[in-house]
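Supplementary notes (optional reading)

For those who missed the lab, this is the record we used. Protein: Large ribosomal subunit protein bL20. Length: 114 residues.
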Amino acid sequence: MPRSVNHVASKAKRTRILKKTKGYYGARKNVWTVAKNTYEKGLTYAYRDRRNKKRTFRALWIQRINAAARLYEMSYSQLMGALHKAGIEINRKVLADLAMNNPEAFKAIVDKVK
């Protein structure tokens, strides 16, 4: 008895992945094994970088807060320590946004903790 192979499902799987690799360069878009490896590695990068993105943004917020705090003769660590001591719970994302887009509000916060 011949071996039963579900060609319909196999071809559908190949087509699905080749559609997702559309726009890639060279063999990465049309050679099945290369495209499959590229696609899977891309998923790995996407998973990793969803976590790295959080680190990068936190670092950016800290740099922005530090730059704004130094305009008022404070360092980042002094400002964050003073905020904690004063019981002001404001996260770095909001604080960095205030420092960039609303300097007078940031100055009010700095004056409050000084």
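If you only remember one thing from this example: The longest helix spans residues 32-70.
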